[in-house]
């Protein structure tokens, strides 16, 4: 896990040159960090924010998507939905309605007071039926929170992540041309994990999954 100062300097470098995210160490001053921290959230959103809603046609039958398609809740009863290969039939998941085909994108998802969630991107043609292999080889670039305090990057095999605190809001930055997907704890201004060895072909979609109660996507 990276320090707050590393995270903040990375954000500025992302906006100037996405490849610089792979640099592992920076030298900075306290005054610079204070100045950056006041504007980093607004700057990132100004640069790259995308307007994403949840696509109810992809949602598992136990998920209830709100009318504005910004919130999804878990319901114990099956909803009457059409069977479709586009819909997740075993995983409690849902996709965003707007795909990414090029450029840079950033969104934030509120995950406070939840005991389990998954967040990332998926290839538009990735399998959604049965028991899924959530890893880049299968078209999923995802981080997960489970068992109260455990976090993992879903690779093959999964990589355990050591976070000092639970995120209440997660920022996700995607650079399509670089094959980069990065996750940040917005409140703590800290880096969670980056998939840096991706190579996207075709459209990718934001991926959301929950295990209990409410999962709310907030797009600024």
UniProtKB/TrEMBL annotation:
Domain of life: Eukaryota
Gene3D superfamilies: 2.60.120.920
Domain B30.2/SPRY span(s) in chain numbering: 32-220
InterPro entries reported in the protein's UniProt record: B30.2/SPRY, B30.2/SPRY_sf, Butyrophylin_SPRY, ConA-like_dom_sf, PRY, SPRY_dom, TRIM/RBCC
UniProt cross-references to SMART domains, sorted A to Z: PRY, SPRY
PANTHER family linked to this entry: E3 UBIQUITIN-PROTEIN LIGASE TRIM (PTHR24103)
UniProt-recorded name of the protein: B30.2/SPRY domain-containing protein
Organism: Gouania willdenowi (Blunt-snouted clingfish)
């Amino acid at each position: 896990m990276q320090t707050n100062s590393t995270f903040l300097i990375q954000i500025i470098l992302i906006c100037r040159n996405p490849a610089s995210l792979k640099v592992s160490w920076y030298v900075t001053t306290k005054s610079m960090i204070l100045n950056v921290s006041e504007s980093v959230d607004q700057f990132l959103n100004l640069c790259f924010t995308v307007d994403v809603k949840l696509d109810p046609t992809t949602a598992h039958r136990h998920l209830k998507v709100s009318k504005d398609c910004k919130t999804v809740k878990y319901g114990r009863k099956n909803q009457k939905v059409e069977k479709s290969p586009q819909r997740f039939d075993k995983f409690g998941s849902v996709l965003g309605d707007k795909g990414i085909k090029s450029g840079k994108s950033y969104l934030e998802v509120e995950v406070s007071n939840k005991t389990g969630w998954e967040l990332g991107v998926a290839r538009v043609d990735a399998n959604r039926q049965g028991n899924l292999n959530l890893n880049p080889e299968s078209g999923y670039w995802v981080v997960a929170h489970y068992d109260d305090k455990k976090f993992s990057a879903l690779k093959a095999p999964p990589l355990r992540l050591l976070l000092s605190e639970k995120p209440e809001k997660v920022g996700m930055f995607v650079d399509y041309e670089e094959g980069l997907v990065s996750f940040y704890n917005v409140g703590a201004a800290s880096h969670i994990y980056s998939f840096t060895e991706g190579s996207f072909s075709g459209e990718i979609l934001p991926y959301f999954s929950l295990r209990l109660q409410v999962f709310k996507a907030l797009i600024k």
